[in-house]
Design a protein that fits this description.
Elements (H helix, E strand, L loop, with lengths): L2 H6 L8 H48 L5 H87 L1 E3 L2 E3 L1
Helix pairs in contact: 2-3
Length: about 170
């Protein structure tokens, strides 16, 4: 390759590469936020499940102790009532965690969509660049062939004994 050929072979540069990089980082952050929200929801559901199990165990114990003194039954009822309040509060936390997860899911989908739009644009620009490079290379080859064709008769001419032979 000649020096001029090296100069014509430029590297592909996507003018919006920094924007694409930014959108990829936003998407990665959205993935992390979604995963954290999902883990939070799982923990909240596990806590609710544990409270429900605790309530069921308390109710079973209560049925077995019906002969206990009224004072103990009162304490158990107070505990059950407090447990019901905790269950309801936990259900609220689960519902809130589900809403947060849904918002994070939507943000992730939007971030992925925005990144894909730029990636498709980059691919389109790359293909245009590649076609330009192929066209330029073909033009250079054609020019080289033309130069060779023009110079060939003079280069291949041999003079033998004063006569020119081609």
């Amino acid at each position: 390759m000649t020096a001029t050929r090296h100069q014509t072979m430029r590297r592909f540069e996507f003018s919006l590469q920094k924007v694409l990089d930014y959108r990829q980082r936003v998407e990665e952050q959205a993935i992390r936020a979604f995963a954290e929200a999902q883990a939070h929801l799982i923990r909240e559901r596990a806590m609710l499940h544990q409270l429900l199990i605790e309530r069921e165990e308390c109710l079973r114990r209560s049925q077995r102790r019906q002969q206990l003194a009224i004072e103990l039954l009162d304490i158990e009822q107070t505990y059950l009532s407090a447990l019901e309040g905790r269950i309801e509060a936990q259900r609220e936390r689960v519902a809130q965690a589900e809403k947060v997860l849904q918002k994070k899911r939507e943000a992730l989908i939007e971030a992925q969509r925005e990144r894909k739009v730029l990636e498709r644009l980059r691919e389109k620009h790359y293909e245009q660049w590649r076609q330009e490079m192929l066209h330029s290379e073909q033009k250079s080859l054609d020019d080289l062939a033309t130069v060779r064709a023009v110079l060939s008769p003079g280069v291949l001419s041999l003079r033998l004994g004063g006569e020119t032979h081609e």
